Description:
alpha+beta
Amino acid sequence: MSGQGRESSSQPYGWLSVCLRWPSLLTFSIVNIALAATVIALTIVSSQNDGFVTIPSSNTAKAGEVGDIPDTPWSLGILWTSLPSFVFSLFGAYWAWIAGSLAERQPYVELRKEGGADARVSILLDYRVVASIWRWWGAFRRSHYMVGATTLLSVFLTYLVAPFAARLFVSQIVTVSESLPIVYNQTYNVDGIDSTVDWRPVFDTVSATRLYGGNKIAWTDDERAFRPFDADSDLTTGASMAANTTAYSAYLNCELVKDYSITSSGSSVQVSGSDRGCSFKQSFSTSSSQETYFKTTVEFGCSAKAYYSRLVFTAAKYSSSAKNNLKDIKVISCATGYRQVAGTLRVLPSNGAPVIQSFVETGEPDTSRPKLWRVFEQDILGSVAFNPKMKWTTTDLGTLMLYTAQRAAPSDPLATDVLMEAIQGIFTAIYSNAVAIHGFKTLSEPEKAVGSGLIPTTRLFVVTWVAGIIVAFLAVTLCTVAVVFFLLRDAPSILSEEPQGLLSMAAILEKSDLLRVASEIRHDVGFDGEIRERAKGQPEVKDRKWRVVKHPETGYWVVRAARNVEMGAAERLLS
């Protein structure tokens, strides 16, 4: 039959499916390398540039609002989820074609082996009837390792890599910096915090923020006040801005004084001591009507080496049976310090006060004391309001500190660590709020500078671990292609054309022993139509090796049992 003629010199290894020929394998390898290079390149660009491409995005809903349901391809992420999955699905389908062709060809390779092959791996084998997800297991059991490996790789590419590819890219919001004109309308006023300042509003502000969780006033955070600035042009909604500014703050360095003396004369109590080279004295009256005492004083007689001044706090409880009528006495002495430093402040503009997001120092801190530091330290202790319902006697500053300690530790507000933390925190908050309220003056001519607009932008990123999985499988696939190419040279088949249809199969079986075997099985008593199942149980089929020999005149391949070949069955082909 013409379809089963001699092998031509152009097909020394038998007929090959298109996908197994070198041009197709080369094309597949090029596609493989291109995909791997693309994934690697995008991963590098993504990691170095906060994503590799900017994508449109709809506005997100504000807190408390219901956002619009995504209804566009961009909002749903169809392009960067479905497209990679589609591409790798096509890639997997291409590989499945290669793996399927190898599996389909394998029985015809076995028949051409010297000495033949068992029936179970040749004439009774057809991988096409086995689902690819299980085919690899049967191939490995039959020692068809290349068929098993390529089929297993096909399963991974189809059911693992392609779904993972849908998560190769992910959109994230990043901040893109752009130049932004900045204007400064105020500057620091060294004379702003003077003796005319009314401290009650400052204390009320600190009380609202520190005790009751109120919003901070504009241009302050928990410890600093910042020189204000504003954008000199329109800023994208939701964008923040950053500019150079100066931060002003004050702090206390407190120590628990253990070396002190306390004396009393009637209801008057005197406390004296020394802290790091600075001596101090306090005096106050005691009364059975007051349960708690918190004396606050300032000492200006300290040397420069001793940090110039001390804020001294004596806390105690009244006890008629205790010496000097006081018990649980704690004397805390605090050295004051001031700090101003240049840096870059990032804020988020809003309808009210701008939200402080971050501050990065860029210069060396200036710790010199402000011009009117003595006025500040003395005046914050001068405000005293009488409240008959309070169980302690102290200044307004002391009251604020005690309330803070009480909120932090209701069971023991006079504990040393609790009280010391409250003292330091309140002092810092009072100074920063005082600077924000009184420490700046309006400029007659605004100053202009250049800052940064920090615009939230949706960028597409590569998920590194997914990219790693994909590249690993692409590398394995590329190596397998090379192995397939070279193994095909050592695995010729009996095919001279694609075994397509009954006519091609009939040409392969012409004059073969299989026709006789099939005829005998069909004429067996009780034949139920299942030739293959019956043949699997017959010794003359399953216990023989099968191979092909060439017709001595036509050169056609003829399938014969190996034993018949040894007996000279080739001569009988002429009859």
